């Protein structure tokens, strides 16, 4: 479990710099340059992600079961993760309703993804992993909205035609991941 926690601290810690040290972040980017900052940020993220995957794999060998998930929980998780998968591309597609309503669809999607997995993941290591991502998403979303208000950011209204791309991309990615990749990469087939 310690490797998983270390990975979470590194990965989510790196992703929390804007939440807790925006001034330091801006000064560091100015000092080292945007490309060098992105390179260092990517290395920190990759190290954290590798440790999370490795630590989660180790923790899965001897799981500590905390409760029994209800029979309906995989279906709720499926619906919530589908919405999360739509929010991910919505963060990068201009002029869609998701961005105009949610404001930060990537962070909201991560939070929804994490919450969804807490319904079906009844082991200690899963609660640590998904709980950490959920807490991070809540703090990051709140910090991003505070920055929006301080900077007077206004998100333009979306159009239905611009909603199509995130919905189609999200559904296709969700289907591919849930029915093919999740079992292969994670070792769990969600609807089996």
UniProtKB/TrEMBL annotation:
It is a multi-pass membrane protein. It is found in: Membrane. Residues 3-190 form the NnrU domain. It holds the Pfam family NnrU. Keywords: Membrane, Plasmid, Transmembrane, Transmembrane helix. Its main location: membrane. The chain crosses the membrane at residues 37-59, 71-90, 110-143, 164-186. InterPro entries: NnrU_dom. One of its GO terms (cellular component) is membrane. This is NnrU family protein. It comes from Paraburkholderia phymatum (strain DSM 17167 / CIP 108236 / LMG 21445 / STM815).
């Amino acid at each position: 479990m310690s490797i998983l926690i270390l990975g979470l601290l590194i990965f989510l810690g790196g992703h929390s710099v804007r939440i807790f040290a925006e001034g330091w972040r801006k000064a560091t980017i100015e000092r080292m340059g945007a490309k060098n900052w992105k390179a260092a940020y990517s290395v920190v993220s990759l190290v954290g992600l590798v440790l999370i995957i490795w630590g989660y794999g180790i923790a899965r060998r001897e799981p500590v079961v905390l409760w029994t998930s209800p029979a309906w929980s995989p279906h709720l998780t499926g619906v919530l993760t589908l919405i999360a998968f739509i929010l991910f591309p919505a963060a990068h597609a201009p002029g869609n309703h998701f961005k105009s309503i949610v404001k930060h669809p990537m962070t909201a999607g991560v939070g929804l993804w994490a919450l969804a997995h807490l319904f079906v993941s009844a082991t200690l290591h899963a609660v640590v992993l998904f709980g950490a991502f959920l807490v991070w998403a809540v703090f990051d979303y709140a910090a991003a909205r505070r920055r929006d208000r301080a900077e007077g950011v206004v998100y333009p209204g979306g159009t239905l035609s611009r909603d199509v791309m995130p919905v189609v991309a999200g559904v296709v990615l969700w289907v591919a991941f849930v029915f093919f990749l999740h079992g292969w990469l994670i070792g769990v087939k969600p609807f089996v």
